[in-house]
Amino acid sequence: MDEPLLSLRTHLDAVERFGELRHVRGAHWDLELGGIAELSYRLAAPPAVLFDEIPGYPAGMRVLTGSTGSPRRLGRTLRLGDDLDDAGVVAALRGKPSRWAAAARDFPVRPVDDAPLLANEVPGEEVNLLEFPVPRWHEHDGGRFIGTGCFVVTSDPETGVHNGGCYRMEVADDGRTVTVAAVPGKHGAQNIQRWFEREGRAPVTVSFGHDPLLLVLGGTEVPGGISELEYAGAVLGERVPVVSGPDTGLPIPAGSEIAIEGWLRPDHLRDEGPFGEWTGYYSGRRRPNLAVEITRLWHRDDPVLLGAPPGKPPHDYSYMRTVMKSAMIHDELAATGVPGVVKAWAHESGGGRLFIAVSVEQRYPGHARQVAHLAAHCPAAAYMNRYVVVVDADINPADPDEVIWAMSTRSDPGQDIEVLRQTWGSRLDPLWTEGTPARNTRAIIDACRPFERLGSFPRVARSEPEFLREIERKWGDQLA
């Protein structure tokens, strides 16, 4: 049988051809996988890492990390090209998210009856998720988290539109069940709540190994009312093949390595957390969370678990989120019709969410402040954003040194910092206080030269680029 569309194995073959896959054999599921992955993210050229021969498990049961952590791997994942650098990925991505969203409904999922996933079926009462090498990623995690690179499918009970989200999932009851920490306010959590109100339970399917395109889409803000599986079809230019869960009717990607289906009930809870999150901190205390009543499980022979453990940036998907968010924020600003936006960048050190910089060619008084307010609340940036800095067009917003220089020399704290209150926060925020609403405040910083002084502001003390290129041609060899 040929590999289905969105097979993780096809992605692995491509990464191997790129020379960006490292094979690690014999590392233990308890902390060693997470520690090796964390070290890999700090390398100048972070590789993807495929773990095998994990103690206590048969050879061939593998775990992958770092699936999207380079320009080539992310470019391949988004089908933008296999030989792109950082700037090339961002340039190729500009304008694509809005076009993919518009085309998504032209690519409904394609039901199939056969897939490698169906090679092994386990009834719910016999399920043991710990038969797979589920890692304990961080020292102070509350348990073993099988869901880091997962794809959780829910549906709107009224419209039937599917949603695919990526949530943390901790194995519970000695492998018999798993929690789902759906983020409040996100589409998946809204679907679950609607099912609870209508039926008293919510259907769910979960894939634990698949092409990382589904990890990318499950972890970013695809517009409401659009299925991430149909959106993936628009990215691919082909309908995504799926098998249907016989109990829930929900789709499962045919390229999945391991998958479950079952039900969520408001009173079916298991203790969950804490977990080392993308903010760089452990979030929450151990407390009850929704858990899946698993009705059945499927897996391929020698399945591969897709891991995407977060932590203090850089982490598994911080590069991917930075690139995706930067392009989406820029596109959404352009869609408002505001002129002069040059570049947006959601900094990796802020997890691709907390610190956003935007460069603008100022056209009129108040222009920079307008862009700042729009960026702070556009859909791609609204969740848990903390700082938006707007800089002039001569500043590269992706360079933190340039952004800090602009903040230090072009902004007056008394006039150029505004604080927005009661905005969309998260319980993952290390500043959130338990028992209070998940809101935050955010600052916008106008680090542009005052519009009325554009012609008289002090000249920047640096040489013209053309002159420096000439000097480099003449003298560069003596500096090497």
TrEMBL record:
Entry keywords, A to Z: Lyase
Highest taxon of the lineage: Bacteria
Residues covered by the 3-octaprenyl-4-hydroxybenzoate carboxy-lyase-like Rift-related domain: 114-313
The 3-octaprenyl-4-hydroxybenzoate carboxy-lyase-like N-terminal domain, residue ranges: 12-82
E.C. number: 4.1.1.98
Record-linked InterPro entries: UbiD, UbiD-like_C, UbiD-like_N, UbiD_Rift_dom
This protein's name: 4-hydroxy-3-polyprenylbenzoate decarboxylase
